[in-house]
C-alpha cells in the first residue's frame, strides 16, 4: 500500500517544542542560553541545561508552545500559564504583601502553617510593627495640624504637602531588617520567589519613602535575583546570530542580525538557487541562514577547512528538516584551492575497475548495497534482548542506529561532490591576484592552461550525475585574504550574479574594491607583436562598500531614548555583480558612441532643437503669424 506525503509537511515549523529540538531561553536580564529538549530526565548522551550553575532537566518542556514563560525553580523549570511575562506584575507583589499581613494575624491566633510559610510569616511579622509606625508617622505629617486649645475657628491652616524623593536615602545597609542568613533560610526551604520578594519589600524601612521609579527599579532588581523567569524562543537565523553575538561577538567577527539580513538580501538568496558560501569566520551562521531561507529547494555549497566542518553544532541548532539537510553540501577547501595532480590521484584511488571492465565509484557502490529498513543482526538482537533490560537504553540504541543509517543513505560520496563542484566552474576563466603593475592591479589569463585551473575530468562510465551549472550567488566571510579568495571563486559564479563579501575591518575590503576597479588582462597584439599587451577590463559592476548602522531604543512613556550600551560596529560589506569575461563589458567602444551621436546629434540636444524648429516652420510659423492670419480672416 503506497502512501503519499505532502512535501509541505517537511517545511512547516512546528508550533510546539519537539523532542531533541534545540531552543533558546531568553531571560529578563537579556541573557540567552541554548538548550535541547531531552526526552529523558537524566541522559549521558545529551548535554544538560545549566542556569546559574545549576543543572535542569528539559523533559517536561516537550510539547509546550514556543513563547511559554518558565519560572526557574530550585530543581526544575516550572511552566507558567498563558499571559505571564518575564517580569511579574507589581500588583502581584502588593497582593502578596497583603496576604502575608493577613497570614501574620492568623498565625498569631494559632493557625497551623508549614515550615516555609511560617518562616516567611515570621519575617513579615518582624517588620509589621515598623511599617505600622512608619505609616502612622507619615499620616500624622500629612494631616493638617489642629488646635486643641479651643482657639478661634476663623484661622485656617494650610496642610503641608510632603515631597517624596531620594534626597534623604543613605546606603548604609541598615534599611533592610532581613539578614542574609534569614534569606538563605527561605531559599533552602524552597520558598516561592514571589514570597521572598514580598518579604524583602515589607521589611525595607526606606521603600515607602522612595519615588515611584526607584520603587519599580527596586522591585525589578529583586525579581531578577529571587524570581527569575525565562521564555522559550524558536531558533531562527536572527535569534541565532543575536545569541552568539551577545555571548562573544569576536568569535563571529561582530556579525549582527541586521548585517546578516543585508548579506542574505544582497546575495539574492531564495528558493531554487545554488549558493556558494565560505563562512569560516562566522561559525557557520551564514550557511545555516541560507539553508533555512531556501526551505530545502536548491543547494548550498559550504566550504570548510580541515578534516570536517568545525561548526556542525551551530548548524544543527537550527533543527533542519530532511529536505533542508539534503540541500546542504559540505565541500572541502582542497576541492577548490587544491592541486590538480593531487585531486587526480585521489580520483584514481576512489575509482575501481570491475571484472566486466566498468569503472565504478566504490563509495557509491557500497551505499547502494545498504537496504532500509535493515534487519537486526543476530548478535545485535541477542544484545538487546538478553543484555539490555532497560527500555530506555533500547530506545536510545535504536534511535542512534536509525540516525547512523540515515547518514549513510543520504551522504554524498567524495566523487559526487567533486563532480558537483567541478560542474560549477568555467574552465576558461582563470583569475590571478598577482598584479603586474602594482598591488592594486591584477592580471588574468583567459582560456589557457585548463588543467591548472582545477577542472576535473571523470570518465562518463562512472555513472555520476553531471550537473553543469554555475552558482547563482557567492558569499564570502573569512579571515583569509578576501581578494585572493574572491578571484579564486569567481569562475564558480555565473555571469550577472551577485557576490557579497563580509569582513570585520574596512582595509581588506578596500583593497579588494580597488583590485576589482583596476583589473587588467593579458592579450596578444593584433599586429603580430609578440610582446603581450595589458588591457584594462571590468570584471564586476555595481560595486558598493557599505557599513550598517544599528541602534536599539528604549520606548517607554516619557522615557524614550537610545540604549546607553550598544555595539559600535557590525562589520563591512562589499557588494558587486559579476560580468561575463567573454561578452560582458561596462564601457562602450568608439563605434557604438558614433552610432549614438549620429542618431541623437553631435551635441546634447542639438538635433532635437533643429527638428522642433523645422516642425514649427512647417506648421505655419510662430504665435504672432497666427494672430495676424486670424485678424485678416
What does the largest sheet look like? Answer: 7 strands, mixed
Tell me, rounded to a whole number, the average pLDDT: 76
Number of E-type strands: 22
Bin the strand percentage: 5-15%
Q: Alpha-carbon distance between the termini?
A: 96 Å
3D architecture notes:
- By secondary structure, this protein is an alpha+beta fold.
- The protein has a 7-stranded mixed beta sheet, sandwiched between helices. A 5-stranded antiparallel beta sheet has the order 2-1-7-5-6, with helices on one face. Strands 3-4 form a two-stranded antiparallel ribbon.
- A hairpin with a 4-residue loop joins β5 and β6.
- The longest helix has 20 residues, at 90-109.
- It is flat.
- Residues 1-10, 104-158 and 434-466 have low confidence and may be disordered.
Task: List the defining traits of the structure above.
633 residues, alpha+beta, seven-stranded mixed sheet, five-stranded antiparallel sheet, 38% helix, 15% strand, disordered N terminus
Short description:
The chain is of the alpha+beta class and 633 residues long.
Note the topology.
Elements (H helix, E strand, L loop, with lengths): L21 E6 L4 E5 L12 E3 L2 E3 L12 E4 L4 E3 L10 H20 L5 H12 L1 H15 L37 H9 L4 H10 L9 H15 L2 E5 L3 H11 L9 H10 L7 E5 L6 H10 L4 E6 L7 H5 L5 H6 E5 L1 H4 L2 H11 E3 L5 E3 H7 L9 H10 L3 H20 L3 H10 L7 E2 L10 E2 L28 E4 L5 H8 L8 E6 L2 H12 L2 E4 L9 E4 L3 E8 L5 E2 L6 E2 L9 E7 L11 H11 L5 H13 L4 H10 L1
Parallel strand pairs: 8-9, 8-15, 9-10, 15-16
Antiparallel strand pairs: 1-2, 1-7, 3-4, 5-6, 5-7, 11-12, 13-14, 16-22, 17-18, 19-22, 20-21
Helix pairs in contact: 1-2, 1-5, 2-5, 5-6, 7-8
Amino acid at each position: 500500500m503506497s502512501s503519499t506525503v505532502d512535501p509541505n509537511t517537511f517545511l512547516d515549523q512546528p508550533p510546539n517544542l519537539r523532542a531533541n529540538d534545540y531552543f533558546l531561553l531568553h531571560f529578563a536580564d537579556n541573557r540567552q542560553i541554548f538548550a535541547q529538549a531531552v526526552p529523558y530526565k537524566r541522559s549521558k548522551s545529551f548535554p544538560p541545561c545549566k542556569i546559574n550553575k545549576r543543572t535542569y532537566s528539559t523533559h517536561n518542556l516537550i510539547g509546550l508552545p514556543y513563547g511559554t514563560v518558565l519560572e526557574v525553580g530550585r530543581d526544575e523549570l516550572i511552566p507558567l500559564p498563558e499571559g505571564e511575562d518575564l517580569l511579574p506584575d507589581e500588583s502581584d507583589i502588593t497582593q502578596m504583601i497583603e496576604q502575608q499581613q493577613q497570614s501574620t494575624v492568623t498565625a498569631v491566633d494559632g493557625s497551623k502553617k508549614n515550615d516555609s510559610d511560617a518562616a516567611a510569616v515570621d519575617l513579615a511579622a518582624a517588620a509589621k510593627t515598623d511599617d505600622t509606625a512608619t505609616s502612622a508617622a507619615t499620616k500624622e505629617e500629612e494631616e493638617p495640624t489642629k488646635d486643641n486649645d479651643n482657639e478661634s475657628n476663623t484661622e485656617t491652616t494650610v496642610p503641608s504637602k510632603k515631597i517624596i524623593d531620594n534626597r534623604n536615602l543613605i546606603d548604609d545597609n541598615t534599611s533592610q531588617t532581613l539578614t542574609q542568613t534569614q534569606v538563605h533560610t527561605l531559599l533552602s526551604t524552597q520558598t516561592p520567589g514571589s514570597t521572598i520578594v514580598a518579604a524583602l519589600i515589607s521589611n525595607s524601612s526606606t521603600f515607602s519613602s522612595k519615588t515611584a521609579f526607584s520603587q519599580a527599579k527596586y522591585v525589578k532588581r529583586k525579581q531578577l535575583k529571587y524570581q527569575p523567569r525565562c521564555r522559550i524562543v524558536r531558533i531562527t537565523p536572527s535569534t541565532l546570530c543575536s545569541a552568539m553575538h551577545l555571548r562573544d561577538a569576536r568569535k563571529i567577527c561582530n556579525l549582527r542580525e541586521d548585517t546578516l539580513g543585508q548579506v542574505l538580501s544582497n546575495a539574492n538568496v531564495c528558493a531554487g538557487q545554488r549558493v556558494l558560501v565560505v563562512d569560516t569566520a562566522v561559525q557557520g551562521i551564514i550557511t545555516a541562514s541560507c539553508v533555512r531561507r531556501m526551505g530545502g529547494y536548491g543547494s548550498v555549497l559550504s566550504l570548510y577547512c580541515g578534516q570536517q566542518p568545525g561548526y556542525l553544532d551551530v548548524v544543527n541548532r537550527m533543527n533542519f528538516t530532511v529536505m533542508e539537510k539534503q540541500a546542504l553540501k559540505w565541500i572541502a577547501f582542497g576541492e577548490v584551492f587544491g592541486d590538480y595532480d593531487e585531486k587526480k590521484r585521489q580520483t584514481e584511488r576512489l575509482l575501481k575497475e570491475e571484472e566486466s571492465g566498468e569503472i565504478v565509484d566504490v563509495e557509491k557502490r557500497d551505499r547502494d548495497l545498504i537496504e532500509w529498513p535493515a534487519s537486526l543482526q543476530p548478535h545485535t538482537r541477542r544484545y538487546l534482548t538478553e543484555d539490555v533490560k532497560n527500555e530506555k537504553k533500547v530506545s536510545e540504541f535504536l534511535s542512534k542506529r536509525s540516525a547512523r543509517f540515515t547518514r549513510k543513505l543520504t551522504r554524498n560520496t567524495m566523487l559526487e561532490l567533486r563532480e558537483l563542484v567541478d560542474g560549477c566552474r568555467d574552465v576558461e576563466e582563470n583569475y590571478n591576484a598577482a598584479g603586474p603593475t602594482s598591488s592594486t592591479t591584477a592580471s588574468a589569463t583567459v582560456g589557457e592552461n585548463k588543467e591548472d585551473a582545477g577542472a576535473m575530468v571523470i570518465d562518463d562510465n562512472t555513472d555520476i550525475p553531471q550537473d553543469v551549472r554555475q552558482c547563482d550567488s557567492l558569499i564570502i566571510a573569512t579571515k583569509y585574504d578576501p581578494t585572493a579568495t574572491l578571484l579564486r571563486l569567481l569562475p564558480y559564479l555565473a555571469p550577472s550574479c551577485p557576490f557579497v563579501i563580509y569582513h570585520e575591518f574596512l582595509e581588506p575590503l578596500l583593497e579588494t574594491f580597488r583590485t576589482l576597479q583596476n583589473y587588467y588582462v593579458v592579450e596578444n597584439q593584433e599586429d603580430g607583436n609578440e610582446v603581450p599587451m595589458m588591457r584594462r577590463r571590468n570584471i564586476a559592476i555595481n560595486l558598493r562598500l557599505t557599513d550598517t548602522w544599528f541602534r536599539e531604543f528604549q520606548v517607554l512613556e516619557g522615557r524614550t531614548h537610545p540604549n546607553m550600551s550598544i555595539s559600535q560596529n557590525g562589520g563591512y560589506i562589499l557588494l558587486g555583480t559579476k560580468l561575463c569575461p567573454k561578452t560582458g563589458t561596462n564601457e562602450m567602444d568608439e563605434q557604438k558612441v558614433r552610432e549614438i551621436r549620429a542618431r541623437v546629434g553631435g551635441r546634447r540636444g542639438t538635433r532635437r532643437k533643429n527638428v522642433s524648429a523645422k516642425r514649427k516652420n512647417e506648421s505655419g510659423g510662430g504665435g504672432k503669424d497666427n494672430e495676424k492670419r486670424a485678424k485678416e480672416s
